[in-house]
Write a structure and sequence with these properties.
- By secondary structure, the chain is an all-beta fold.
- The protein has a single domain, classed as Jelly Rolls, CATH 2.60.120.
- Helix content is about 0%, strand content about 40%.
- The strands form 2 sheets. Strands 2, 4, 5, 6 and 8 form a 5-stranded antiparallel sheet that branches.
- The radius of gyration is 14 Å and the shape is globular.
- The two termini are about 30 Å apart.
- The relative contact order is 0.33.
Length: about 140
Amino acid sequence: MAFDAENVFHDGTAITADISPVSTVRSGGSAVLDLKKTPAKGLSVAMIVAADLAEINDTMLVTIEESAAVDSGFVEVARFPLLTKGTGMPGTYILRFQSNKRYIRAKIDITDADVGGDFTVTGVYILLTPYAYSKL
C-alpha cells in the first residue's frame, strides 16, 4: 500500500457487502481513522474507483462520518455522489469536509439490484489526503 495505513479508509479490498467500520483495526479492507484533532481548514478525502459496477442497477454510496467514540455515534459530514454502472467509473472523486470529532470513517452502502448476492466492485481506494480542494 503506497499510503500510510493511518490515512486509508478503504484499501482496495473487493467490496461485496455494506461496510461500516467500528475499529481502528482494519477489517474487510476498511478501518476507522483516529484524527486526534482536525485542522481548522478541514480535510480532503479522495475516492479512487478502478472498475465499474457489474450490473446496471447496482449502486454504491460512500459517506464520510465522524464520532467522538471509535465504535458508535457516527454522523455523516460528507457524501460522495451515488455511483451506478456507467456513471463516472473508473474515476477519482475528491471532497472536503470539516470535523471536530476524533474519529472518522468511510461508510460504504451497496445495493445489489437483483438481490442475487453477486455484488462486487474491486479497486476502490478511499484516502485521507493532505491536499486542499477549492470547493466545499
